[in-house]
Design brief:
By secondary structure, the protein is of the alpha/beta class. It has 2 domains: 180 residues, Glycogen Phosphorylase B (Rossmann fold); 154 residues, Rossmann fold (3-Layer(aba) Sandwich), CATH 3.40.50.2000. Helix content is 37%, strand content 19%. The chain contains 14 helices and 13 strands. Strands 3-2-1-4-5-6-7 form a 7-stranded parallel β-sheet. It has a 6-stranded parallel β-sheet with strand order 10-9-8-11-12-13, sandwiched between helices.
Length: 342
Amino acid sequence: MADTAVFHQTALERGGGLRVAEEISKILDAPLYIGIATENVLRRIPDNIEVRPLLTGLPAEILGKNIHFRRLYSIMKYRRSNIMSEFKTIILSGSLLQWYVPNPDQHVVVYRHSIKYPYVPEGFEPLRSAFEVFMWPYHQYPNKYLSNSDRTKRHLKNRLNINSEVVYPPIVTKDYQHIADGDFFLTVTRVTKGKCVDHLVESFRSIDERLVIAGDGDLRSKLEERSPDNVELLGYVSEEKKRELLGRCRCFINHSGAELFGIAAAEALASGKPILMAKGGYNHVQDGMNGFTYQHENLGPAIRKFQSDGVEWDRRRIKEFAEERYGIERFKNQIKSAVDPK
C-alpha cells in the first residue's frame, strides 16, 4: 500500500478549495486526484503537482452540465473506490468524498471548506436534517477533521457533534506586495448571484467611485450589458494580474456576506490593503486596523466612512496580520501534524 494521497471532489473552476488541495499535495509530496475536472482547470494547475483522475468513464464536460447527475454519479463512484483504498493516509477535500467507506487501517483526514450539503437547496431545512441523519455513519469514519474557518468549526460541532481543528487556507504572503494606492475599489470573485455581484454592481450605480471586478461566472455577460460606466468587469485574470490589481487597488470589497473563508480577501491583506467586508461570513477584519465591516445593504455608507474616517492604514501591520493567520509555514506545520496517525 502506498503512503499518502490527496483527493479533491470537483474542479469545474480553479477556486479556493482546489488551491488548498494543491498546497496540501505539494507539502506532502503526494499525488492529487480530482474526481471531475475540466481541461481548462487542469491546464492551470502548477506543473510541480502530480494530478491524476479519480473518476473515469464520463468526460467532465458532460458531468459538469448537470449538477444532479454529477452528484449521483459521484456518490455511486466514491462509496467504494479502488483508487482511494490503495493509500495508508488519504486527505479528502470536499463533502462529496465523504461517501467513501475507508479500510479499517486507513488514516482519513477531511478538510471541510463548506458547511453545506451539496444535495440540499437553500431553505430546505427538513431535507437538510434528513441528510444529517442519513450521513451520520459516514461522518464517523474519518480520524480527523480540519475546518477552513472558525465558523465552519462551530457548525460542525453544533450540527454534527464533530470536533475539528481550524486550519486557515494558506497564502504565500511574500508573493503579495503593496504597490500603490490606486483610484479603484476591487473585488475578486466568481461572478454569480450567490456572490452577490449583481447587488454590488447596482450599489455602485449611486457611488461616485470606480469598481473593478476580476473573475468570471454566469452573470458576467448580463452585468457587462447593464453595468454603469464606473464599473469594469475584467473576467478571468491570471495570478500575476490578480496580484498586480491587489497591489494597486485602493481597497478590497468582500460583499457576499456568506463567505466561509474568502481567500481573495486574505490575499488583499497580504498586499497591505484594507478590506470593506459585509457581515455574515467569516470575518477577516478588525475594525479600524485592517478595514471595516458593514451591513450588506449599507455599502455606500461604508465607503463614505472609509473615505472620511481619517484612518492612516499601517500597511506593514496589515501584512503581518495576514502572515500570522494565513502564512504558508503555519499551514505546513498544521497539515503535517494532521496526517500523523500518532
